[in-house]
Fold:
Amino acid sequence: MNTNLYPIPENEEARIETLQSYEVLDTPAELAFDRITALAARMFEVEIALVSLVDTNRQWFKSKHGLGACETSRSTAFCAHAIADGAPDVFVVLDATKDQRFSDNPLVTGDPFIRFYAGAPLSVDDGVRLGTLCIISTTPRTEFSIRLKMDLTDLASMVVEELTLRKLLIQNHKKQLSSASHDLKTPLFCFSLCLDALDATKLASSQRRILDHARGNVDLMKWTVDNALQVHQQQQNQQQEPQHQQADQEETIAVLEVVTRVQKVVKYYPKRVRILCILDDDVPKDISTVPVRLVNALINYLTNSCKFTASGEIKLRISAVDDLALGGAAVVFEVEDTGCGVQDPSVLFKETSRDGEFIGSGLAAVYHHMRVLGGRCGHHARADGKRGA
Structure:
């Protein structure tokens, strides 16, 4: 068997777009799916049951019962055959060692030593197959009856229902967030006009300080609303054809101007520690970037640190490095805090959910901004071994 070859559906491009629209890849485990795989393992008396989603070059497991791996290469995936054009309603391999397509597959000759496999496709819009609910055993079988195939298909339908419900919950959350953000823009604008009118009058120094504080908080609220709307618009753009998306315009901006814009907003963000800015001597005076994206990314980083840092301090360090991956010199903006640290770095830059319920965007906006800017973002523990990140 040539494991570099696997069947590709004719609708592959549309299939991948549909899969991505569910926003489920690389998300944490959810009880609704884990219950189904556990039930499947018991019903069919197998060691392994998976909710497998077939991505461009891999199969990723939304739920895995009896298997440690989170994903495998698509080239070795039995599920890649189960979603192929012309595949049966339930794809069955009774003994992989006797099947020419799989006999020398690494998943057969090595761990998990697949012998029996059955996969029912997860069919959504117009029959698009996102992946399978599959069951696997290390013991070959002589048959897999029509009744058992029907049972597996019914369980696969339950998985599709959970995926659809999950997608609707996320969409409803985004709509509510967008609507609330739009509703807040009008009173914020009116409040800003009132502050402008007040600014034009004679004020005592103490009154001027109160006005500045109020203006700073309005700026923070404006940023919060605009950021929510921007994230929503980005998600809308991702669903459009590339030719309909508007490209960002880069411009030259002073690094100090970037810092000033960030400080203007973060200054009034609720926090319990001070924020220090450290600018290395070798940092260039000007950089070429999309200012609004860079500023929003830094504000997201800093306000996230403010949420989880109860004592100590937060540092924004700006340095210059030679980065071969980015094609030359690059400016690094590093946020270091003394907070609680990161429990699960794998979901740090992703929208997160628990049991199908949306619970937050994390630093997903930062990841998106950096990807559009041609940069990258990441996380590492403090070098001194202390708490924080």
